Amino acid sequence: MAFNVQTFLTRLGSAVLFSALMLGCLLWNELAFLMLFALVCFLCLREYLSIIEKITGQKVPHQHRFLFIGAGMGTYLLTASIPMQLCANALATLMHQHLMYYSLGLSIGFIGMMLFFKRSPAVWLLLSGLGYIPLSLGLLMQLRYQSLLLPVMLILFIWMNDTMAYLTGSFIGKRPFFPAISPKKTIEGTLGGIVFTMAFAAIWGALTDWFPIWQWIVLAGIASFVGTAGDLVESKMKRMAGIKDSGQMMPGHGGALDRFDSLLLAAPVAFLFALIFMKCFPYQVFG
């Protein structure tokens, strides 16, 4: 894969702007984090709808589109409000006390109506998207309750793996990784992204004392290995749908699913790892 300066600059410019907006919401407070990924969830659900329509070759009825989006947003809020861990957190407690049963009813009600109405062939594929998108993002919010550092560093590790895989593959990549799914990915680029990301995690762990080095390395490994699998899963769906990008949210990067595909698979694995092995560590940037 030859290095294209114009493509790289386009990707870099949109990534810098996007990263600034993302980091602002990530670091501000928990409510901003919750609202940010509610927006991400909504955008991803819309793009998933479009992909399923192209895969099945049939238009999803308007009522099913509405019900799917509603069920997805309800599932996101439900997952974010279930008490899954022992970390003390005011927003988590507030959501559990006042939102969990409403969001549960919302999810069950919308899913029930989707199955009650005259069904299209796409309905079962749409229901699979509820586990793929809102459940994953809800677990990312649960990770945020444990410590701000965990989702922020997971996302930064994913971005680093993405960027270093692109650069390494552009300069020395020769052998395709999964040509049938993602022809531009190379073995050299994939390995380069993993090595650079895990090396950075080791350095980061050595320079900080918030969590042990090995835990940062494992988190980076989840971002690299599981994140790459997430990218391949979304690439496979796009190939089945016959499209290049899931949307046009970012110049050079595509849509929301293109940008968050790695996170959608990595977040649940990172949450389970952190829940079992990592401590609660309240941390805030803006007091």
The termini sit apart by 46 Å
Radius of gyration from the alpha-carbon trace, in angstroms: 19 Å
Report low-confidence residues grouped into runs of 5 or more: none
The secondary-structure element order is: HHHHHHHHEEHHH
- The secondary structure category is mainly alpha
Name the overall outline. Answer: globular
DSSP strand tally: 2
Structure commentary:
This protein is an all-alpha fold and 287 residues long. Helix 2 (30-56) packs antiparallel against helix 7 and helix 3 runs parallel beside helix 7. The longest helix has 29 residues, at 213-241. The protein has eleven helices and two strands; from the N terminus they run H-H-H-H-H-H-H-H-E-E-H-H-H. Strand 1 and strand 2 form a beta hairpin. The protein has helices at 5-28, 30-56, 62-81, 90-98, 100-116, 123-132, 134-146, 149-172, 187-207, 213-241, 256-277; strands at 176-178, 182-186. The termini are far apart. It has a two-stranded antiparallel sheet. Helix content is 75%, strand content 3%. The mean pLDDT is 88. It is globular and about 55 Å long.
Q: What keyword list fits this structure?
A:
mainly alpha; globular; two-stranded antiparallel sheet; 287 residues; 3% strand; single chain
